[in-house]
Write a structure and sequence with these properties.
alpha+beta, 140 residues
Amino acid sequence: SNSRIYRMLGGAMTTEIEFRLPGVRIETIENARRRIVSLTAMTPAEDRRTHIAHMLWWTNGALDLARPLAQRMAEDFLAQDARILSAQEENLGAFAHRPIYLGDPDAPALWCMKLKRAWNARREGGFAHPLERAVLRWRT
């Protein structure tokens, strides 16, 4: 309700963010008349480098006029995230400390680490998936 964009779309919007580990995020923003879905996928490109792909769909034809602006906003948002993750990776490699993770907003990061540990510990012919299905809730 505090977003100018939500008000432009007609208000009463809900947002659901789904994480498909290890690297897919699907965000659905909708109300009774409109839906916007964004998909962000991260895939390894080479050692210590990741490719980020982002796609955006909507059901409101009037938003087609905003395509250049939406593209720029998505690129800026993803570039900001990439800088933060890069700095975090550098920090984690430079200092011997354990990060502090707090509640549901940090759960996807913890899940990625559990998956990585389980993947690295797998034996010939098997992988024991360490996670259970969960619903996270938080406000930003």
